[in-house]
Amino acid sequence: MQLILLGTGCPSVDHKRFGPANLISTRKTTILVDCGSGVTQRLKEAKVSSANIDALFLTHLHSDHVVDLYQLIISSWHSYRTKSWRIFGPIGTKKFVKKLMDVWKDERMLRIKYEQRSSIQAFNVKVTEFGEYGKTRIKDLAVEYFTVDHKPVKYAYGFNFFQQKKKLTISGDTKPCENLMKYGQLADVLLHEVFIEDEIYSYFRMRTKKTLHNVKAYHTPSTIVGKVAKITRCKKLVLTHFVPTQFNEKKLIDVVAKDFGKKPVIGKDLLKITI
After folding, report:
1. Which of 56, 85, 142, 271 is deepest in the core (most CB within 10 A)?
2. pLDDT tens-digit profile of 45-60?
């Protein structure tokens, strides 16, 4: 199983850290988790065709995690995708996808009629919405989904991916959360978001203290994420979804390692990790 970090950023625009997106692949299966800004460009750089992706899993419906969904669909059509899209996401995903497809319907129908491509299956989107907890399988990858705490977002999820005896846990966006610590136990890799609290105040000078307090309240601070990882007893901690996107890497490593007991990996766009 291989993990490719396609986007390690957040809603703030950064030319080195694109919007949240991760690719999990085996010899038989390719799964995309989230589709933030720039995901199709990063897929191209990773030499992965959107025509071959077996399924898309969405952690939640915040804009930075779904903003390039239609771009993903239309670009897969241009890449000669011949199968429908399977999308798994929280309650509200069906409504979101329907509205998105409706917005672009006239433009899409014009392209279909004029370009006369051999297949339109890329526009056949099948959505499955999650309950609170469950399991599914995409070819040789077993997937477990569970709720995390990103309130006031009502529905937010973390994922476990299993292949043979290997386990990858993806936190999604969450504050320190018992469910994540429960279901992330003994992961070979824990991919976790982080709010770098000792740099956010100087970086976001235009934000009010109340705004910063509220943003911090639904993410996991850098002073806590190492503790979370230690509780899960994961073998490797990889950090992503950096808020802010620019920070002192050495300082962050030291802060997290103090609690985790090992140095975390600072995620970067297009970083490949074999699990």
Report:
1. 56
2. 999 999 999 999 999 9
